[in-house]
What does this fold into?
Amino acid sequence: MKRRILVLFAMMAVLAAAACGGEDDDGEQSSNPDGTGKPAELTQVTVGYIPFLIDAPFFVGIEKGYFADEGLELKLERIAGGADMLLQTAAGNFDIGSGGIGVSLFNAAGAAIKSGKEVPFEVVAPLHHEKAPVATPLVVSKERYDSGELTRVSDLKGKKVSINAPGASIEYWLYRALKAGGLKYTDVTVVTVSFAEVSAALKNKSIDGAMLGEPFTTLGEDQGLVRVLSEDFVNGDQPTGVYWNRAWAKKNPELAAGFLRAYLKAVADLENGGWQDPATLAILEKYTQVPADVIKRAARPYNDPQGKLNLEGFRDQERFFRGLGLLTYDGELDFSLFMKTK
It folds into this structure.
């Protein structure tokens, strides 16, 4: 099967926004020293991120000057995991964060609401959504697929299927893949295996199936170890979001509004041909170290230039995680208390 490559992992991020200044005839600093209309001074905003290709709007917005046009210099702070990202943003160590919408976010919001406090973060835009073929498909061993043993999702009933992290969107992804194939989540035994170890685990039969993110899916296919079993089980679901520290946003409403405008402008840039544009691809290559020609052929992430959040999808996630007993609050959350619903 011919698959497009989606490379989610990036090696580094390099900041490229810089302040420029000048003086007018009165000796006072001009707000437009170079005739570009950009502010003379930029305000640094700390943005936590996990260096995936889904963070492309940040890279494009920095390099094309969209954030600088709003008076912002983004200081990108790399972090290892989504739960830490939320914690750092809620604590105010990051002004803005991005990452998965999952158990940690729901529970953090639920705890604040239960205690009568304002939720310290607000989800203000989607980071990405997915269409088929998804970035993290359900895979099995190519050998067992070719033998006819595992050729349908229903063949995984009673078997071990891995995810790379419990309580995250990927667990919901597995639920959706199984459901699309006629299975319940409880029909399989879910175990945790890192993406890098999946191909070997499938080969030695310590697992029977796995949710496997790119580029590991393509690498496994190239090695003759992996066969995709399902890759079209979601359409438009948003597993990730962009959120800011609410105290920072209240203290800096103009900066917050400017950030969102610049972010959505970068999203629109990407959605309107940016993923095929040589200049934009060069930016993405710079930040991810993935060759532009590979990105151009990628099964890319999608986004909404209007920044509309898929609340119905989030509600379905909440119901799923509650069914697993992972939520620490009762009832449904009022999303309007910590999500930008308009």
User: Anything to note?
Assistant: The chain has 13 helices and ten strands. The radius of gyration is 21 Å. The first strand starts at residue 43 and ends at 49.
